[in-house]
């Protein structure tokens, strides 16, 4: 717990993600990444010099076989207020619209519902569970599919909503998060989305893993290059659209 929290704190400090009095919501999908982030921020708030409030929000996609009660129990144990927002996003994406690219529409709809609930609760900062490996994979996805050098930013201010997104797990690898989830027996909820494991991101993830077998420091070098260029928003605290 202390090691994970130390990585999170260093990332938070490097990009000035948290200010005194912030009300921060963790977007909890039920996966290991967001659950680990919730635990780390809950631990960090005990001693961080800039006091902040913490909440957790889950956007339920409408999949009947996903039970988030264990997540609610974890939040209660951590003394973190929890909100579960039920939607019919799955029905809209896969039945009503029959989207050829369902992941894109799903992401937009989830983001819209999340921002709406954040503003209803007076929360203007949301912590997302994107980690070190996600950043590297997103960089390659942008290069392969868009022909540009790009990635999500550690800290992003969305001027249309006034919500700031922060990603405190960027210094933590997926393997570290997997080990943490197992060690602390986090209540990981199995993702039953029909596109899970069949997306472009999964293809890139598998490619990066194959390349890493021959070039073990590939991910570290790419991540370092992203910071040294730097990519927009990666050189330090910078708020942008």
Describe the protein.
With 241 residues, the protein is α/β, with parallel strands linked by helices. The protein has helices at 2-14, 32-44, 69-78, 89-96, 102-120, 132-146, 174-183, 200-214, 218-228, and strands at residues 22-27, 52-60, 82-86, 125-127, 155-158, 163-166. Helix 3 links the parallel strand 2 and strand 3 (82-86). Helix 2 (32-44) packs across helix 7 (174-183), helix 4 runs antiparallel to helix 5 and helix 6 (132-146) packs across helix 8 (200-214). The longest helix is centred in the middle third of the chain and has 19 residues, at 102-120.
Roughly how many Å is the radius of gyration?
A: 18 Å
What gross morphology would you assign? globular
Tell me the name of the CATH homologous superfamily. HUPs
Helix content: 40-55%
Largest sheet: 6 strands, mixed
Number of helices: 9
Taking pLDDT < 50 over at least 5 consecutive residues as the criterion, the unreliable ranges are none
Number of domains: 1
Strand order of the largest sheet: 3-2-1-4-6-5
Structural class: alpha/beta
Instruction: State mean pLDDT (0 to 100 scale).
Output: 91
Q: Please indicate the percent range of residues in DSSP E strands (runs of 2 or more).
A: 5-15%
CATH T-level fold name:
Rossmann fold
Distance between the termini: 33 Å
